[in-house]
């Protein structure tokens, strides 16, 4: 139940909810939990003693969640595929097009200067979000997939030689497998894959042993979109750097859900997609250490990335422009900046804490349904799962399950291989169903899902 | 609800319950008969409790073994064309207003699907592009008709296959080639809207049937209306993740084929 009036939420630091009319044009480095006034009313202390969860409060900002599908209330449990966008992000995008849309970087006139300022400000916001030291280490791309391809074609083609090794895991997303296959075919480099251990997480010991003098790159996920496990990136980076190898971190499932500090991780490359972190589609970014980017040749050629163009040759711009050919997704970048602001306002630690709780609840309730097999590690003291569960129900195809859940209950989950076919093959299944949560989901969403799941299972059982 | 009335309700439109083979099929008079059959099939007392979550148990006796049988060899089915059967099936599904009833009907057809030998479950028989696994076995019988058998790990896909096989098993190659993907999208089972990816199973199985029919029978005899697709995609692992074998060694096994489409079925891409 979404209450409009609410008590002061029980944050760790009890900062009173300040009403601030957040200006989209100013940098807000808020350490307190200030909120946008457009979405929430003033904190009214009511007689109601139940603190409203983050999920309930955040839902108000997402109009899309308040609809019916097929006659039932929508329960959106597919945020690992794409997240929903809060009103603030949509406003930022609309604002851009309505008030200052203009091409960036070369214009002289007012609108162009404003668009450029906002675009570069968005770059700063992203840099700040992941604690990069310089915003020139952020290259805007179309999405994380393009970012990985950028590294593969630009860094990979010029740095990989026959016999060089690239270490991946069997649990990687296709976007962190296929580009390396293509590049290793061209360069003669060899791909090596870390398999899973008995806890159904990539075997870290095996990874450590695989790293050798021949290793040039370790490309791994931070959080798995199927197993919900996380890898100890800091340690992996240490091992890789010992042999002079670089590390690329696929942070698509981590940046939206927890604090990711690239300086702390010390990763060489890190990629993420905007659309999984409350930002629009069509934009993502690559973080690369300055010295690495400086040494990399261009990926795509065209305008913006050049310094001087002659008929027979061209000179190239400094990074990040070198890797941003053509007119960028300006509005989308600005909206991504707004998404970073929105998330920072709530506070990534707060979001993560809420999701850890939700993840546990999801896992426990799902595990209590008979004949359900959840993939990935069991949550424990030392193992925290992401707020998603890929699972299979004995004797029921995940696609049939997802179809029925959608049709009869309005519950949106994903079924298939989740762009991780090798992982599914390794686990010995063709497909799985996946329910994934974000901070705008609530325990009630999980409850609806479980009830719907039980109904689905018994429906299909009645045909056996 | 006794089972005899259910048999009337759920058996496919043109097979009477007393004679299970297609021999008993009579060419329908489209103007009057389908509506009569539709009213027979649509029993208002079917348990429509699906909306209420309080009663998830559905006692739905499944006894459709007599419903679908392969046309026995030697049976002439010249009076029935695949096109007729397709139209009848479409009418049948259209008569079911509630999506859940369509799913139920499809699932009941799934149970009636003739079993596929394990020996037929080979990669060459895999229908590519489906989100579920579908195997399709196809041969030509001595009368020159196409014979199909199929199976899937998904019940809904099995239902699709069952319908397609009912339409096309025992058909002449030209009939097989004449079925269009758009006709199937009218079935609208289990999903909503015109543009759906779930229906791709229909499309992919039909494509596979047509492609392999053409290959078996030869281009000269067959009118192909759907457009050409290349050989089935070889689903080769491009790497071996057991230690030792390198990626480069496996590279030669890469089969360049781009025959899968993830674009939505039935969508009009013309400008």
TrEMBL record, chain B:
Which keywords does this chain's UniProt record carry? Chloroplast, Plastid
Cellular-component GO terms for this entry? chloroplast
Subcellular location per UniProt equals: Plastid, Chloroplast
One GO molecular function term of this record is:
enzyme activator activity
Does Chloroplast show up as a keyword for this record?
yes
Q: Indicate the principal place this protein occupies in or around the cell.
A: plastid
Q: Which InterPro entries match?
A: Fe-S_metab-assoc_dom
Record's Pfam families? SufE
From its record, what is one biological process in GO terms? iron-sulfur cluster assembly
Q: Per the database record, which ranges form the Fe-S metabolism associated domain?
A: 91-211
The entry sums up its family as follows: Belongs to the SufE family.
Q: What is the official name of this protein in its record?
A: (rape) hypothetical protein
């Amino acid at each position: 139940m979404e209450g409009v009036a609410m008590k002061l939420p029980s944050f760790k630091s009890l900062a009173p909810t300040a009403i601030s009319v957040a200006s989209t044009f100013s940098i807000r480095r808020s350490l307190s939990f200030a909120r946008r006034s457009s979405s929430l009313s003033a904190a009214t202390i009511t007689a109601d003693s139940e603190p409203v969860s983050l999920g309930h409060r955040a839902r108000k900002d997402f109009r899309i969640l308040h609809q019916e599908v097929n006659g039932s209330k929508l329960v959106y449990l597919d945020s690992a595929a794409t997240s929903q966008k809060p009103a603030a992000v949509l406003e930022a995008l609309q604002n851009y097009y309505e008030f200052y849309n203009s091409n960036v970087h070369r214009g002289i006139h007012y609108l162009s200067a404003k668009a450029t300022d906002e675009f570069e400000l968005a770059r700063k916001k992203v840099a700040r979000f992941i604690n990069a030291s310089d915003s020139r280490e952020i290259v805007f791309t179309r999405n994380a997939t393009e970012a990985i391809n950028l590294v593969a074609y630009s860094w990979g083609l010029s740095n990989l030689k026959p016999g060089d090794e690239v270490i991946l895991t069997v649990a990687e997303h296709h976007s962190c497998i296929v580009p390396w296959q293509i590049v290793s075919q061209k360069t003669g480099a060899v791909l090596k894959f870390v398999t899973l251990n008995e806890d159904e997480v990539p075997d870290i010991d095996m990874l450590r042993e695989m790293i050798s003098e021949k290793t040039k790159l370790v490309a791994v996920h931070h959080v798995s979109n199927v197993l919900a496990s996380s890898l100890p990136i800091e340690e992996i980076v240490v091992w890789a750097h010992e042999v002079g190898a670089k590390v690329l971190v696929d942070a698509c499932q981590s940046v939206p859900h927890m604090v990711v500090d690239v300086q702390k991780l010390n990763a060489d490359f890190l990629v993420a997609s905007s659309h999984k972190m409350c930002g629009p589609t069509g934009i993502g970014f690559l973080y690369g250490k300055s010295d690495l980017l400086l040494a990399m040749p261009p990926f795509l050629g065209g305008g913006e990335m050049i310094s001087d163009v002659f008929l027979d040759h061209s000179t190239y711009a400094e990074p990040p422009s070198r890797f941003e050919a053509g007119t960028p997704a300006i509005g989308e970048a600005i909206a991504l900046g707004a998404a970073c602001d929105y998330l920072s306002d709530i506070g990534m630690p707060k979001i993560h804490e809420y999701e850890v709780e939700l993840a546990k609840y999801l896992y426990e309730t799902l595990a209590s349904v008979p004949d359900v097999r959840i993939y990935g590690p069991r949550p424990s003291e030392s193992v925290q799962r992401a707020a998603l569960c890929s699972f299979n129900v004995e004797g029921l195809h995940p696609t049939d399950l997802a179809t029925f859940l959608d049709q009869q209950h309005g519950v949106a989950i994903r079924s298939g291989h989740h762009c991780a076919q090798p992982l599914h093959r390794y686990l010995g299944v063709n497909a799985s169903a996946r329910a994934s949560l974000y901070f705008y989901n609530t325990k009630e969403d999980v409850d609806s899902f479980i009830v719907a799941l039980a109904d689905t299972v018994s429906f299909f059982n009645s045909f056996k | 609800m006794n089972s005899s009335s259910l048999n009337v309700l759920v058996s496919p439109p043109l097979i009477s319950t007393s004679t299970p083979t297609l021999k008993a099929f009579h060419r329908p008079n489209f103007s009057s008969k389908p509506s009569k059959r539709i009213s027979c099939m649509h029993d208002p007392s079917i348990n429509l409790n699906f909306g209420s979550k309080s009663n998830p148990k559905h006692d739905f006796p499944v006894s459709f073994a007599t419903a679908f049988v392969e046309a026995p060899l030697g049976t002439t089915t010249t009076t029935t064309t695949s096109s007729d059967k397709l139209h009848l099936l479409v009418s049948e599904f259209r008569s079911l207003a509630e999506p859940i009833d369509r799913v139920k009907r499809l699932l009941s057809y799934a149970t009636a699907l003739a079993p596929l030998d394990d020996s037929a479950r080979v990669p060459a028989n895999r229908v590519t592009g489906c989100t579920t696994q579908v195997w399709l076995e196809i041969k030509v019988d001595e009368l020159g008709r196409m014979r199909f058998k199929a199976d899937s790990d998904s019940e809904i896909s099995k239902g699709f296959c069952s319908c397609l096989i009912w339409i096309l098993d025992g058909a002449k190659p030209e009939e097989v080639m004449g079925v269009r993907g758009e006709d199937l999208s009218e079935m609208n089972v289990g999903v909503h809207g015109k543009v759906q990816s779930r229906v791709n199973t229909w499309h992919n199985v039909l494509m596979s049937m047509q492609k392999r029919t053409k290959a078996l029978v030869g281009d000269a005899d067959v009118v192909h209306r759907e457009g050409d697709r290349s050989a089935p995609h070889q689903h080769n692992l491009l790497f071996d993740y057991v230690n030792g074998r390198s990626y480069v060694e496996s590279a030669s096994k890469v089969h360049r084929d781009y025959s899968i489409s993830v674009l939505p079925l039935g969508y009009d891409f013309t400008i």
